[in-house]
Amino acid sequence: MELWYTEYQTREIGITCKISKTYYTGKSKFQDIALIETGQFGKMLVLDGMVQTTVKDEFVYHEMISHVPMCTHTNPEKILVIGGGDGGAIREAIKHKSVKKAVLVEIDGKVVEIAKKHLPEISCALDSEKVEVKVTDGIKYAKENKNTFDVVMVDSTDPVGPAAGLFDKDFYKSIYECLKEDGIFVAQTESPFFHKDLIKRVFDSVDRIFPIARLYTCSVPTYPSGYWSFTMGSKKYDPLLTDISKIDGLQTKYYNPKLHKACFVLPEFVKNIIKK
Ligand code: AG3
């Protein structure tokens, strides 16, 4: 018998994958969790029915959420990832030799446990001695750790359920305060095709709080519309002015020095979303 899984990305469209194995389905305190084997994308992590990551396309999102801010900062030593319990963003972050410590703050310990057990390719860095995993609320953590981090990445789920507060203006203010004076933050901000209002709202908030606000995009085939956005807020460094000749030795499959700037070149309809 053939088994298929569908994520209904909007009320009008979905992504359907043939699955050959179910490694885990269950409920944590915060959400439904599933770990399935798909023919096309390999192992796939699904939270509350929404595809979070797959072994075959995770590199795009994880490299882009991490290397763009990491290479914009001139000396990122202390890193914070909020969400991202699968470990992919932090795996990329610690590829940077300057990093002394990377803290992962994930609200749902079950996600970390499942990723460690079933997604070693993605979660491998969680056992690194530079990495500290804290199972707690990222909003609270950001408030309690002022002036501490060089780079903060918000690797959240969609703005519903446990992640809703991670798209709030007050949260971005706490992030601003938990960054050092030249700190940078990036948040995943959904699809320019399907989530225009959200992108506009987040970009506006970040633009009000940070001296520099930028939006960049990449292609993630398993996410709604396949086209994804990130919003960056920076206190000092402008990613468009990064000296890309200094970026070298990073082992990547998507990110590269030229893309560092090219990813900020936006199509007209995306420019219009964030136009003042
Ligand atoms: N977090 C963002 C995934 C959003 C996908 N949305 C959806 N499928 N509706 C990814 C976490 C990876 N570390």
Unreliable stretches: none
Q: Which sheet architecture does the biggest sheet show?
A: 7 strands, mixed
CATH architecture descriptor of the largest domain? 3-Layer(aba) Sandwich
Q: Please give the radius of gyration in angstroms.
A: 18 Å
Shape: globular
The helix tally amounts to 9
Beta-strand residue fraction: 25-35%
Bound molecules: 1-{4-[(3-aminopropyl)amino]butyl}guanidine
Specify the CATH class of the largest domain. Alpha Beta
Structure overview:
This protein has 276 residues and is an alpha/beta fold. It contains nine helices and twelve strands. 44% of the residues are buried. It has two domains: 3-54, Spermidine synthase, tetramerisation domain (Spermidine Synthase, Chain: A, domain 2, Roll), CATH 2.30.140.10; 58-273, Vaccinia Virus protein VP39 (Rossmann fold), CATH 3.40.50.150. The model has no long low-confidence stretch (mean pLDDT 97). The strands form two sheets. The chain has a seven-stranded mixed β-sheet. Strands 1-2-3-4-5 form a five-stranded antiparallel β-sheet. It binds 1-{4-[(3-aminopropyl)amino]butyl}guanidine. 1-{4-[(3-aminopropyl)amino]butyl}guanidine binds at residues 7, 9, 50-53, 61, 84, 86, 88-89, 155, 157-158, 188, 223-224. The site of 1-{4-[(3-aminopropyl)amino]butyl}guanidine has 17 residues, from strand 5 and helix 2.
Short note summarizing the structure:
The chain is of the alpha/beta class and about 280 residues long. Helices cover about 30% and strands about 30% of the residues.
